[in-house]
Amino acid sequence: MSDSLVEIKGLRKSFGRHRVLRGVDLSIDTGSSVVLLGPNGAGKTTLLRILSTLSRPTSGQVMVAGVDVTSNPEGIRQYLGLVGHAPLLYDDLTAAENLEFYARLYGMKQADARIDELLRRVGLYNRRKDPVRTYSRGMVQRMAIARALLHNPPILLLDEPDTGLDPQAAEMMTDLLREIGGSERTLLMTTHHLERGLDLADRVVILNGGTLVYDAAASELSYEDLRPLYDKYVGTVAT
């Protein structure tokens, strides 16, 4: 596998006459953590949906692990874990039952050890027999990450996973994402929270009006640097 795990070239997406993505070029290396910032309507969710094969581009090319997402979506889903706005969990099933269900969908055999490992990792092992409907918002988000990691994908896509979390739950989420990233897993996360995104990222990308307007290594930025840069490119929307 090459260093560039994700290659996006000239990506465009329109819904009727409304152009959401306007020629995005983006390369993401294996093992990097990229935070994608931008206001509502910038095209962040659309970009992640195309990467995760849930939506097709109008034009352009998206390659994941050398496989074109439009010509072979089934071939790349093994590489992807997605945490979107919906947790994709069954409220009346327990944590363990939810993961057992998804393990069967992935064709995983003898998944009990993997399920226990993940529930411990996200801090839910002691609640594994409780229905998901009894979980807090932060617990549901951690459970959604466990679901996305179940088949051990090298790429984790997270669309505003901190939305609606109280500060304590958001900090726990940040610690978890920091732990699961690294040399073996690539993270691409959207967020409106500049400081939290910068804390997690190796690289900061700003999307506005369907176009990439800023791209820099996180090591080159402090929060004090990023706030005025964000305001310059998109206005005072993020917190």
Strand adjacency order, main sheet: 6-7-8-3-9-10
Our count of helices gives 8
CATH class: Alpha Beta
Could you give a short account of the major beta sheet?
6 strands, mixed
Describe this structure in words.
With 239 residues, this protein is α/β, with parallel strands linked by helices. The chain has one domain (4-234): Rossmann fold (3-Layer(aba) Sandwich), CATH 3.40.50. It is built from 8 helices and 10 strands. The protein has helices at 44-51, 73-76, 95-105, 112-121, 137-149, 167-180, 194-200, 223-234; strands at residues 4-15, 18-29, 33-37, 59-64, 67-68, 80-83, 155-159, 186-190, 203-208, 211-217. The strands form 2 sheets. Strands 6-7-8-3-9-10 form a 6-stranded mixed beta sheet, sandwiched between helices. It has a 4-stranded antiparallel beta sheet with strand order 2-1-4-5. A hairpin with a 2-residue loop joins strand 4 (59-64) and strand 5. The chain is globular and about 50 Å long.
